[in-house]
Specification:
Number of strands: 3
Strand order of the largest sheet: 1-3-2
Distance between the termini: 167 Å
Helix content: over 70%
Number of helices: 7
Oligomer: single chain
Radius of gyration: 55 Å
Length: about 200
């Protein structure tokens, strides 16, 4: 079996051609991060010619001559390579699409039957209406509280006004009583003097 730069090889094929232990080949694949297809390492011929150049030189004359030769890819291999390239492109596209659906740590993914989803959708619509009603009630309650505060302030001011008015009236009454008392006392004294003058006393 010949190593050609444009052909791909499995670990067993590389081991058979280069007479190298498969485990060593696997370690080299990990080191160079060789791509896996169907969970198996696949090596390009050009990669093998570069990495195992010393090993290839030490092989027999016939193997060395074949290893150094550059042979065009046979026509029956070209479609397979094109298919592999197309599959790689498709895999990359799928990875890009899947990245959109990555679940974050604070997110939850749930799966519903059609019937469960319909029920969930109905409940969600009901919840939205209830939320709007709650918000409206909250506004109404706030309005009532505001009105109640205004009423309390109004009645408090009215009470304070009435109290001041009562205090003024009470003060006027007290002054009136004092004035009447003084006038009465003065009138009594005058009458007493007049009675004395007229010898009534």
């Amino acid at each position: 079996m010949l190593i050609q730069p444009n052909i791909v090889y499995s670990i067993s094929e590389v081991s058979e051609i280069l007479k190298i232990n498969p485990r060593k080949i696997q370690r080299i694949a990990k080191k160079h991060k060789v791509e896996k297809i169907d969970n198996r390492y696949i090596f390009k011929g050009s990669f093998l010619l570069l990495v195992f150049a010393d090993t290839i030189k030490n092989l027999s004359q016939g193997v060395e001559k074949v290893s150094q030769g550059v042979v065009e890819v046979s026509q029956d291999i070209e479609p397979l390579l094109s298919k592999i390239k197309a599959l790689e492109t498709e895999i990359n596209d799928l990875r890009t699409q899947l990245a959109i659906y990555e679940i974050e740590d604070d997110e939850v993914l749930e799966v519903f039957t059609k019937e469960e989803y319909k029920l969930f959708e109905t409940r969600l619509i009901e919840w939205r209406y209830q939320q709007k009603e709650i918000e409206q009630k909250a506004i109404e309650i706030q309005d009532i509280k505001t009105t109640a505060k205004e009423d309390v302030t109004h009645y408090k001011n009215l009470f304070e006004y009435q109290r001041k008015q009562s205090d003024r009236i009470l003060e006027m009454h007290e002054k009136l009583i004092v004035t009447i008392g003084e006038q009465t006392q003065s009138s009594i004294q005058r009458n007493h003097i007049e009675a004395k003058d007229k010898n009534y006393l």
